[in-house]
Specification:
Layout: H1 2-56, H2 61-89, H3 95-104, H4 115-128, H5 132-158, H6 168-182, H7 185-198, H8 204-217, H9 223-250, H10 257-273, H11 282-293, H12 298-340
Keywords: Cell membrane, Membrane, Transmembrane, Transmembrane helix
Organism: Kangsaoukella pontilimi
InterPro entries: L-PG_synthase/AglD (IPR022791)
């Protein structure tokens, strides 16, 4: 009885904290976005606001549509990869369901703590009847595959650029190592054993779940699966790199396809390493800095950075916000059906 009362009090305390946490996270996110925008606007005003504004308005509607279409290619190819991993895991979900989960998760791309991944896991749990620890390998292998694909694409792009990108090769090597470690069942099992020992064998359920997740990772490591997944990831991110190259050409700053892709991918990885939601701040700063170092005038580098981030990150969020209510309704219907069966 006492244990039941304690659990109830803990649950109520957690529920009471939820609105506060949401307000805190939204305040942090809003402040971060405002700082990024203020930095871009301030720099534009200091270096030539008229030139920056002219560059922003120089694009046609057709050009903007093409940029968005290339971003959509990226999302669809990575959505197909998510479906591939989901099928290998054995969730039994259809292509439409998996694409709905993947796209809907974009709504949470810039929330702290990668909440979008948790939302996808919740939808899978409702529609497939799976617990979070059973779906965790899917999220882990998707993140690892993204790291590997972007590292490979960056390495390929670097071979076609004469100017290079400072610090690119260490990022390539680190990303490949992290991707390999995250997808190795033996390493995850050893990490679970080490963590169990470090906590003096406390939290046994947590580390048991990690071990179960490690065993499930073996389903993704077949050569055929990894080759297809890597191809989808590289092709998807390359589409956005090509969009960045086209944007620079249209704005009168053709630095070459290889260099444009290298800068875009490197900045995206660097933004992720900052830990900021969606790489906000870090990615923008890296793109501007690398473009200027490559000889692109600041009055072009700034609007190019703003446009490519809107047509990639913020376009994904817009798609996620559109799909999210649909995914939520469908998952609730599936949950009700499971409970009534």
């Amino acid at each position: 009885m006492a244990m039941s009362s304690t659990s109830t009090r803990r649950a109520r305390a957690q529920n009471a904290d939820t609105p506060f946490r949401r307000r805190r996270d939204m305040a942090l996110l809003g402040g971060l976005v405002l700082l990024v925008l203020a930095g871009l606007v301030g720099t534009a005003m200091a270096t030539g606001w008229d030139e920056t504004l002219d560059a922003l308005t120089s694009l046609t509607v057709l050009q903007i549509v093409l940029l968005l279409a290339l971003s959509l290619v990226n999302y669809m190819l990575r959505g197909l990869r998510w479906h591939l991993f989901s099928s290998r895991l054995g969730t039994g979900l259809s292509l439409l369901q998996n694409l709905r989960h993947f796209m809907g998760g974009f709504a949470m791309s810039v929330t702290p703590g990668r909440v979008g991944e948790l939302v996808r896991m919740r939808w899978i749990g409702r529609e497939a009847g799976w617990s979070f620890d059973r779906t965790a390998p899917l999220v882990l292998v998707d993140r690892a595959s993204d790291l590997a694909a972007m590292a490979i694409l960056l390495a390929i792009a670097m071979t076609f650029t004469t100017t290079g990108v400072s610090g690119a090769m260490p990022v390539v090597i680190l990303s490949l190592i992290l991707s390999w470690m995250a997808s190795r069942p033996a390493i995850l099992r050893q990490a679970a054993a080490w963590g169990h020992g470090m906590t003096l064998r406390r939290l046994p359920r947590l580390f048991a779940r990690v071990r179960r997740a490690a065993r499930a990772m073996g389903r993704f490591t077949s050569p055929g699966t990894m080759v297809v997944a890597t191809f989808l990831g590289v092709a998807g991110w390359a589409a956005e790199g090509v969009a960045f190259h086209l944007l620079l050409v249209w704005m009168g700053a053709d630095i070459g396809l290889g260099t444009a892709i290298a800068i875009f991918v490197f900045a995206t990885l660097a933004g992720g390493l900052t830990g900021a939601p969606g790489g906000l701040g870090g990615a923008e700063a890296a793109i501007v800095a690398l473009l200027v170092l490559d000889g692109v005038p600041l009055e072009i580098a700034l609007p190019a950075t703003l446009i490519i981030r809107v047509t990639t990150l913020w376009f994904a969020i817009a798609i996620g916000l559109g799909v999210f209510p649909w995914a939520e309704r469908q998952s609730k219907k599936s949950l009700d059906a499971l409970e009534n069966s």
